[in-house]
Amino acid sequence: MSTPVQPDQFAFDEKSTAEIPSIIARYPQGKQASAVMPLLDLVQRQMARVAGRAWVPRAAMDAVADLIGVPKIRVYEVASFYTMFHLGPVGPNHLQVCTTTPCWLRGSDAVHAACRAAADTDPELFTVEEVECLGACVNAPVLMINDQLYEDLDGERTEAVLNAIRRGEKPEPGSATGRHGSAPEGGPTTLFATDASERTDA
Ligand code: FES
Q1: Is residue 51 in a domain?
Q2: How high is the pLDDT of residue 3?
């Protein structure tokens, strides 16, 4: 990501301002510094809503530091540590491709290639980022688009999801193969009965 042009100032808009008291109230008196992460998330969502690009400018980090009464460096440390906070503008579809071992073993290279090709062709629509485990390894390989997880992908399925977004559709998140939750591929192999009275092994 290239070095972003930083705005001189940042102000919470009306919608964000209305949410701030309830966010800070989640934490005990004297521990308001713990609100730093939800407040950075609030900034990022405001930027997406107002500017069309989700990111956390430096001026917004300063505003968060003032709000919770901590040195600015404390907020910079948090914002630069977690990949969920973007230090530069990302496109309206942020493609986070997990390439950690379980996803890699299950074909994340093809998912990553499809995402990179989409971002090269439509940089205004897609921003691609390689990330560590997204916590859905059972249905690897996994791609997160904004707040939604797409699972059990391969190159072709990834292209289908991205093409649906290009057409203005909202592709259904979850397993691309119809897997139920994290059940084994092909359906359950044990515990077929969901009603205890149907069990034969009791
Ligand atoms: S390794 Fe990809 S979701 Fe955990």
Answers
A1: yes
A2: 81
